[in-house]
Structure formats: structure tokens, C-alpha cells
Amino acid sequence: MSHLPELGTAASSSSTSGAAPVRPPVALLLGATGLVGQHCLQLLARDPDVGAVRALVRRPLDAGSAKVEVCVTDFERLERQAEHMAVDWVFCALGTTRAKAGSRAAFRQVDFDYPLQVARLARAQGARHFLLVSAVGADPRSWVFYNRVKGELEEAIIGMGFESVTVAQPSLLAGERQEFRPTERLGLQLGAWLPDHLRPVHASQVAACLLASAKAGQPGVHYLSNTEMRRCLPEPA
Known about the structure:
By secondary structure, the protein is of the alpha/beta class. The protein has one domain (27-230): NAD(P)-binding Rossmann-like Domain (Rossmann fold). 33% of the residues lie in helices and 16% in strands. The protein has 7 helices and 9 strands, in the order E-H-E-E-E-H-H-E-H-E-E-H-E-H-E-H. It has helices spanning 35-46, 98-101, 104-124, 145-158, 182-189, 203-216, 226-230; strands at 27-30, 53-57, 68-72, 89-92, 129-133, 164-169, 173-174, 201-202, 220-225. It has a 7-stranded parallel beta sheet, sandwiched between helices. Strands 7-8 form a two-stranded parallel ribbon. Helix 1 (35-46) crosses helix 6 and helix 3 packs parallel to helix 4. 38% of the residues are buried.
């Protein structure tokens, strides 16, 4: 498990001996309109240590920052967007539900195929760090379809040769969603009675831990557990 620096602390700084300043990292974000993605976008846009931010989205988005380049994308033809993948960090908060997708195949396309293709394109262009929002219980050998797909994606990303991979494994996500998910709402209401590693974590806490890991820049594979993320920052009131 990686040790995360305090938010707002750059992972490195330029020397005072006259050396050229280090170019701030460029970040690509998938899932910018989702619960965790929205918080990632806000944090990346206002962090002075982060350079340009590219949000890969299906529809136009008001990012509220001149620093953010909104890249309206046909996810069926991601290879045509290869120029947007020339980045340092890739934040992947893309995901859906089986009910919203309509079928297992459609769910897998969003939660596995799209992220994997972006990872391949970004890796080919020199991306160093891939940061993935997965899920607690992710396991490529799980009998639960959702957990198995998440685990398969983790395994595939880790095997691609990125200098750094960070995998966040949150439980139920708390925060203001644009859509209503009744099963998730029930789980959030019962969250206080769940074991610590399964209690809800606020989406802002997940985003904060991901950004801190990106800025730390430690080589290798790092997992962010649900418990660790719940302690990253105080949960919003």
C-alpha cells in the first residue's frame, strides 16, 4: 500500500540551481460526468501542480475551467482520438450498472472494453501512470459478474507496463448522483451497520486519494482500500 503525500504537495519540485522547471503533468480523465469523475475533474482543474486536463466525454460538458479541454468522443472509434491520449496520467472513473447498460455485454463494453482501449492508446503514447476506479471485491475469478469484470480490468491494466498503476477499490459511493439508484440508496442507508471495509466512502475522498497518488508518482502497483480512502479526508457534511 502506498504512502500518500498531503494534498497540494507537489510530488517533485524544480531545483533552485537554475535547472529548467519540470513540465507540469498532463492528465486525461474518463468518466468526468460520473460521481467520482466530477470530483476528479474539479480537483485536477484547480490544482496548480497539474497542467492541462483532457476530459474524454460523449457529449459537450461545461467544465468551468479554461484549463480543461473537453474532448467529445465516439467511444466506438477511440483510435481516432489517439492524439488526446498523449498524456502523463490517465484517470479512469468510467463505469455503469448492469441495469442501466441493459445487458451483460453492454456493461462489459463500458466497464472493460473502453477503459482497456484507452489504456492501450495512452500507453503507446508514453503515459506513465494509470489510475483506476475499480471496486471492493474485484476479482477476475469471482462468480459475481460485476466483481469479475472489475478484476479482469485491473489485471489487464497492471499487465500493460505502465510505470505506475493505482487501483482504488471503493465500496458504496456516497455523493449527489444525477441518477437514482434504489439498491445503492438502500445500501447507503444501511452503511453505518456494515464492517469498516464495506462502509460507504464519499466520492470526493476517492478522488482526493487518486490525485494524491498521482502526485506521489511512486513506481509499481498501488491499491487504495476502502478503509484507507475513508480516512483520506473528512467526509463532507
